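This part of the workshop introduces the protein records we will be handling. Backbone structure tokens are a discrete shorthand for how the chain folds in space. Once this layout is familiar, the rest of the handout is easier to follow. The record below serves as our worked example for the rest of this section.
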Amino acid sequence: MDDLETPVLDNHLHLDCEDGRGMDAVDDFVRVGGTHLLIVNQPSWKLGVESTDPEDFRPVFETTCEIVENATERLPGQAWAILGAHPGLLSRLTDERDCSPTEARDCMQGILEIAAEYLKEGRALGLKSGRPHYEVSEAVWEASNDVMKHAFTLGAKADCAVQLHTEASEDLTEIAEWAEDRGLAAHRVVKHYAGGRLAGPTPSVMSNTDWIQTAAETGESFLMETDFIDDPDRPGAVLGPKTVPRRVQWLAENGYDEAIARAHIETPKQTYGIDTEATLS
């Protein structure tokens, strides 16, 4: 991006260095102006972990931290890890592992507690949690909400942000209130795969042009993401790694310089405590 000098952060993507594009995707991101990445661990089952013992999920986090280290070496800025349990795991535990919703809840809360250890060690930046975006039983829904609330408690103790995978919504004020009740400020709760408007948490906006323009024009805090899943079996399932830099270029060409600063400098600092300008080499 020859005519644009700004940090460019993709707030949520996955990388698979075994079966996916891995560092080639990072190189693509950099080639078009990308500088910083928040890399979220793959769903545990994609890495072959089908256990009910939280300790068995450590390799998922170790793999993610290794990917983050390798990505940082290739970026003008830095990569950070977001670690936790995909909310779909609770359904897998109840449907395929014969766990009760309570047992599945306890397992996922244990996984989050292990993820919090990586935060204390400085190897991760935030936690990942949430609830299903599809129809589930009332018991699974309540268990999922309990897992999410536990993530907020852990996030408050670790003074870190919590990224959420939830149903589509423009109003998640209740979830933000749950976080604040547990000592985690609402702006440190991040709704992954958000549209251009969101009440409650900080929206991490999927970077299609319409949603990004909407977010830019609200004047509110927002982040930008692709949710790149790096899965060769699902090409084009979400957005590619070049998308965020290209949308930033589009914002610049259309006079949204203030929104660029908001999404890539101000909101990352406010939400995660990271300085995307100071971490540029």
